[in-house]
Design goal:
CATH class: Mainly Beta
Strand content: 35-45%
Structural class: mainly beta
Radius of gyration: 21 Å
CATH topology: Neuraminidase
Largest sheet: 4 strands, antiparallel
CATH architecture: 6 Propeller
Strand order of the largest sheet: 2-3-4-5
Number of domains: 1
Distance between the termini: 53 Å
Number of strands: 27
Length: about 375
C-alpha cells in the first residue's frame, strides 16, 4: 500500500510538472535604445518593431527587426524624414505599424507641431510612409488628409497579403465641429501603399467619436477588415464600436460591443491581432481591460473576458494568440499623465481558461504602451 501511495504521489507530481512545462513561456523585452511606445508584428520569422525616441512633444520614430525573436535587433532606421515630426504626448497619438505583401512595412502616425507637410491652413497631418523596395530606408512621409482635418486621437494602418493598404483616423465631418460630428475616415491603396484614394467616411452612423481616443485597424489574410473606435454619442456614450468589412472597405458593418457611460474623454487605446479562426480584440471599459475573439470574416464576437482581479485604472490592453490557440493578455495599471505603471499579464489556454497566476513586470515609462508577439515554439514575448 505504501508503495502504491508513493507511486500515485509521484505520478501526480510528474503530471503537474509536465503541465507547468507545457505552459507557454513569457519573456520580457525592453524597447531597444531606451525607446517608448513600441508596436510589434511577427511575420514569417521576422519581428518588426517601431518605437518613439526623443521629446514627447516632437520626437522621432525608429524601425528595427529581429530574426532571433527579440534576442538581438538590427541597426535602427529612422522612419520620419522631418525631424521631430512624431508625438508621444498622451500615449494615444503614436505611430502604428502594419506588414503587408512581401513583408513590406507601413507606418502611420499623427503629426506633431513640427510635422510636414501640413494642411492648407496649417492643420495637423495624418502622416504615412512605407519601407522602400530594398528595405534600407523609408520613403518621405505623406499627409493622407485631403479634407477630413481635425486630428486628435490616434490613427491606424492595416495591410493585407493582396497589396491593399488602409489608413484610418477620426475627424469631424467637413465643415462641422464637435465630437458628435466625428466619423471614422479611411484612405485606401491597392498598389502596396504607393498611391492612395482620397479619404471617405468608413461608417456613417451618427455615433460620433471620442476625440482623444485612438483607433485600431487590422486586415486578415483573406482581406477582411476590422476597426475598433470609441464613440461619443450624446457626449456621455463612450462605447467601444467594432467595424468589419468583407468587401475591401467599400462597406462596413458596425456594432456596439462594450458600453461606457461617462461624460469625459478617456484617452483609451484598443488592439487587434490575428488568432486561429479569426481575430483577437482588446479594449478598456470603466478602468477594466477586456479581450474577445472575432470569427473570421464575420461580425460575431465572443463573450468578453476581463483581466483578473480588481481593476486599478487598467489601460492599453494587448491580446496575442499563438499557433496552439493559447492567449497572452497584457495590460498596464495605475498609469497617469507623465507617469508609467506596472505591466501585468495573464495566460489563457485554448478554451479561455486562465493558466496559473497573473504575471507582473516593472513599470513601463511615462507616455508609453505595451506590445507583444507570439513565438513559433508557442511562447510569448512582451515588449515594454
Amino acid at each position: 500500500m505504501k508503495y502504491l501511495l508513493s507511486a500515485l504521489v509521484a505520478a501526480i507530481c510528474m503530471t503537474a510538472s509536465a503541465a507547468r512545462i507545457d505552459r507557454p513561456a513569457v519573456s520580457l523585452i525592453r524597447v531597444p535604445n531606451g525607446g517608448i511606445q513600441p508596436q510589434v508584428i511577427e511575420q514569417d520569422g521576422v519581428v518588426h518593431l517601431i518605437y518613439f525616441s526623443g521629446p514627447a512633444e516632437k520626437g522621432d520614430i525608429y524601425y528595427v527587426q529581429s530574426r532571433d525573436f527579440g534576442q538581438t535587433f538590427s541597426r535602427p532606421i529612422r522612419v520620419n524624414h522631418t525631424s521631430g515630426s512624431a508625438i508621444a504626448v498622451g500615449n494615444i497619438r503614436g505611430a502604428q505599424l502594419a506588414v503587408g505583401r512581401g513583408g513590406r512595412v507601413y507606418v502611420a502616425w499623427n503629426g506633431s507641431a513640427a510635422a510636414e507637410p501640413r494642411g492648407p491652413a496649417g492643420e495637423t497631418p495624418m502622416l504615412y510612409t512605407r519601407l522602400n523596395d530594398r528595405g534600407t530606408a523609408f520613403e518621405p512621409e505623406r499627409n493622407l488628409i485631403h479634407e477630413a482635418y481635425g486630428l486628435d486621437g490616434g490613427g491606424s494602418v492595416a495591410a493585407d497579403a493582396k497589396g491593399d493598404v488602409y489608413v484610418f483616423w477620426h475627424a469631424p465631418l467637413v465643415g462641422q465641429k464637435g465630437e458628435g460630428s466625428r466619423r471614422v475616415w479611411m484612405a485606401k491603396s491597392v498598389d502596396d501603399g504607393r498611391t492612395f484614394t482620397r479619404e471617405k467616411v468608413a461608417f456613417d452612423a451618427p455615433t460620433g467619436a471620442c476625440g482623444c481616443c485612438g483607433t485600431r485597424a487590422y486586415a486578415d489574410s483573406a482581406g477582411n477588415l476590422y476597426v475598433l473606435f470609441r464613440s461619443a454619442t450624446d457626449v456621455v456614450n463612450r462605447d467601444m464600436w467594432l467595424l468589419t468589412s468583407t468587401d475591401g472597405g467599400r462597406s462596413f458593418q458596425g456594432s456596439d460591443i462594450s458600453k461606457w457611460k461617462i461624460g469625459a474623454c478617456v484617452m483609451s487605446l484598443s488592439f487587434l491581432a490575428p488568432a486561429p479562426g479569426g481575430v483577437l480584440a482588446a479594449w478598456e471599459t470603466e478602468k477594466q481591460t477586456y479581450f474577445a475573439h472575432i470569427s473570421s470574416g464575420t461580425h460575431s464576437i465572443s463573450h468578453p473576458v476581463a483581466a483578473p482581479g480588481a481593476p486599478l485604472n487598467r489601460k492599453y490592453p494587448v491580446a496575442i494568440a499563438n499557433r496552439q490557440g493559447e492567449t497572452l493578455f497584457v495590460w498596464t495599471e495605475a498609469t497617469a499623465w507623465k507617469r508609467g505603471g506596472p505591466v501585468k499579464w495573464q495566460l489563457y489556454d485554448q478554451d479561455g481558461v486562465a493558466e496559473s497566476a497573473p504575471g507582473t513586470a516593472d513599470s513601463m515609462p511615462a507616455f508609453s504602451v505595451v506590445a507583444a508577439f507570439a513565438k513559433p515554439d508557442g511562447g510569448f514575448a512582451i515588449v515594454y
